[in-house]
Amino acid sequence: MRSLNLLICEGNTLEEGKIFQDVGIPTHTESLKESLTYYNQNLKIDVLNPCLELDLNKIVPNLNKYDGLIWGGSSLNIYNDTPEIRRQISFMKECFKNVNKILAICWGMQVAVTAAGGEVKRGAKGSHIGIANDIELTNNGLNNLLYKDKKNKFNTPAFNFDEVVTTPVGTIHLASNKINKIQGLNFKTGVSEIWGLQYHPEITYKKMVDIIKFRKNALIEKRNIFKNEEEVNNHINFIEEEIKISEKDSRMLEIRNWLNLIN
Predict the structure, then answer these.
(1) Rounded CA gap, 36 and 57, in Å?
(2) Cα-flanking dihedrals φ and ψ of residue 142, to 5°?
(3) Cα(240)–Cα(18) distance, integer angstroms
(4) How far apart are CA 26 and CA 200, in angstroms?
């Protein structure tokens, strides 16, 4: 692959990122960097946090220098009206005017969909805690280059409580499972072509297990996902069984394929 200029947008606030680092969990940006450089050692990567109040007059004129943008995950919920979320949506709209190829992962997809006129709500059929099972490609997904060499049905790391319920005009539906109808999509707006994933090909199952352990009390007491610690441990055991049979290259094919799309 040739050298590429990429921009990574960190979806988490600085405070959330520091919490991750303090307990030894890689930030989502660190996970993205590791996955991208696995396929291409010649990348020039800049990182930006749109949660901050940015001087867009200085940043926006330089956006068109990037071959692609990746917007990663976050613990935020898009329907909460906070300054950090409004800034992210606003900056995504600027990216639509300047960046040709965008890979929007989990929270990133939710920001992109919202910025393009779609809607995200709390998942009606539940959540994914560390893993999404039986994601199946649609006919359009089978023919989309983002899924080149991907199995028709697969499991993957995922962590989300929300889902896309209304897609932007002209969206192509790529993948689905029983929890989230929209697991993968592709649409165009402005000068941008956006591929969105509700799951995390760039994050290891080990990191997901670490996040579950770290958030154990919140998952039991606030989210009511698990009744008790025993249920948490049983779920972790389930993910650890998946680790035994999962393959890194298969898990991260979407990252490889997107890089090929912009190469």
Answers:
(1) 29
(2) -60, -30
(3) 26
(4) 14
Alpha-carbon span 258 to 249, nearest angstrom? 14
For the chain, the structural domain boundaries read 5-204+248-262
Best CATH choice for the domain 5-204+248-262 from the list 3.60.110.10, 3.30.470.20, 3.90.180.10, 3.40.50.880: 3.40.50.880
Q: Which of 147, 159, 160 is nearest to 250 (CA)?
A: 147
- 149 phi and psi angles, rounded to 5 deg: 75, 0
- Convert the pLDDT of each residue in 65-78 to its tens digit: 999 999 999 999 99
The structure's pTM equals 0.97
Mean pLDDT rounded to a whole number for the chain: 96
Q: How many CB atoms lie within 10 A of CB 68?
A: 22
